[in-house]
From TrEMBL:
It comes from Chitinophaga silvatica. Keywords: Cell membrane, Membrane, Transmembrane, Transmembrane helix, Transport. Belongs to the GntP permease family. This is Gluconate transporter. InterPro entries: Glcn_transporter (IPR003474). The lineage of its organism: Bacteria, Pseudomonadati, Bacteroidota, Chitinophagia, Chitinophagales.
């Protein structure tokens, strides 16, 4: 019965998002209210559960996600992302330009949100395509695969950050394990797979053939350091935490404090040192908040539904039923996220909805929560098709047919999801 009720709720969510075209936050609230009623919760408790779910989910994420959005926006607006890409392309040379763009996409993808990184990298990809007369999909897809991998696996991106909170994982450990899974995943879904795409006909717009910016770029060292500083500090503080739990270490290792420090550094290195006024930098930060507001609302709505399912005892009932399946929670979490992703199209919604269902089973099976984050993250990246905005962005920018978009973009995303799960299962045997 518990399974049937959850299926009904997820089906209702899918209908509201895809057919009714409702805002995701509104859809989550409607489904949460409906779930509370059909699950027999006291009607006066349903609003309290919704409020608790929103508060508990967003409270630990608000600072990290907003500060991360501000940092990413400044990295893009200041020209630091362009400097990173240009530096790598010069270092690798024309022969290995695909690898240069791949690495640039991975580095830039760490601080930047997926959509921002996508739009930012497209002119760089097309300028290389026209300059060296190379196949567009062959050159571009590995770079965009790098953005997808960072979006699904690595904090401080919103989805893995939210999953860290939902599963009670450690952000530093998740980041370290995420790198281990991300690298082979990216190599297989990127350069290896793209070898079979050289003959796909693409006619990218010539508007990017001479893409360049007249704005002076920040220095190379400052650009790399500022973009990678959150990763460096999270990994360092995670390493130091093994040598004892000092109060000062607990303070400086908190992800929100780390992101605040990184943002202050960026304000100086990519703002004040580049002759930008503080008011201009603050305006950039204000724009970043607008960019991330929708994502925060999706996370809040998913938190409300998760709380309803938990308080009604459905999550525990599902976990108990799944125990008899003799299937790892890592695989079930991946599968749940993959199914929801295929139906809804949003990786964030897929990951957070699956997390609410699978969290009790993870606790019962004593699964490593950091690996659980990566498993659900991998599932949330599975098979992107016509209901995903990324699918259409890739199709239109590269001027592909739907058939060739499915054969390139959709297969790439599926490879990322499958290889990501395999990487997680290998790590489970090792750690």
């Amino acid at each position: 019965m518990a399974f049937l009720l959850v299926v009904i709720c997820i089906a209702m969510l899918i209908v509201l998002l895809t057919w009714a075209k409702l805002n995701a936050f509104v859809a989550f609230l409607i489904v949460s209210l409906f779930a509370g009623i059909i699950l027999g919760m006291p009607v006066n408790y349903i609003p309290l559960a919704i409020q608790k779910g929103i508060g508990d989910t967003v409270s630990g994420l608000l600072g990290i996600i907003i500060l991360g959005a501000m940092l990413g926006k400044l990295v893009a607006e200041s020209g630091a992302a362009r400097q990173i890409a240009d530096t790598l392309m010069k270092a690798f040379g024309p022969r290995y330009v695909q690898w240069a763009l791949l690495l640039a996409g991975f580095i830039i993808g760490i601080p930047l949100f997926y959509g921002v990184g996508f739009v930012l990298m497209i002119p760089l990809i097309f300028s290389v395509v026209y300059q060296y007369k190379l196949p567009a999909v062959y050159i571009g897809l590995p770079t965009l695969a790098a953005l997808s991998v960072t979006h699904g696996f690595l904090p401080p991106h919103p989805s893995p950050t939210a999953l860290v909170t939902q599963f009670g994982a450690n952000m530093g450990h998740t980041l370290l394990l995420g790198f281990i899974v991300a690298i082979p995943t990216l190599l297989i879904a990127g350069p290896l797979f793209s070898r079979y795409l050289k003959n796909i006909p693409a006619a990218p717009s010539t508007m990017f053939s001479h893409a360049a910016s007249s704005k002076p770029l920040p220095g190379k060292g400052l650009s790399f350091l500022t973009a990678l500083l959150p990763v460096i500090l999270l990994m360092l503080t995670t390493t130091f935490s093994h040598f004892g739990q000092q109060p000062w270490l607990h303070l400086v290792s908190d992800p929100t404090i780390i992101m605040l420090f990184c943002l202050l550094v960026a304000t100086f290195t990519l703002g004040i040192l580049q002759q930008s006024k503080v008011k201009e930098v603050m305006s950039t930060y204000g724009d970043a908040i607008k960019d991330v507001a929708g994502i925060l609302l999706i996370i809040a709505g998913a938190g409300a539904l998760k709380q309803i399912l938990a308080d009604a005892g459905v999550s525990a009932a599902i976990a108990k039923a799944m125990q008899s399946w003799n299937i790892s929670a890592l695989v079930l979490g991946w599968l749940a996220a993959a199914v929801i992703r295929a139906c809804v199209g949003s990786a964030t919604i897929a990951g957070l909805t699956a997390a609410g269902m699978i969290a009790p089973l993870m606790i019962q099976q004593q699964v490593n929560p950091n690996l659980m984050v990566l498993s659900v993250g991998a599932g949330s990246l599975m098979f992107s098709h016509v209901n995903d905005a990324g699918f259409w962005m890739f199709k239109e920018y590269f001027n592909l047919s739907i058939k060739h978009t499915l054969l390139s973009w959709s297969v790439m995303e599926t490879i990322v999801g499958v290889v990501g799960l395999l990487g997680v299962l290998v790590l489970e045997k090792i750690i």
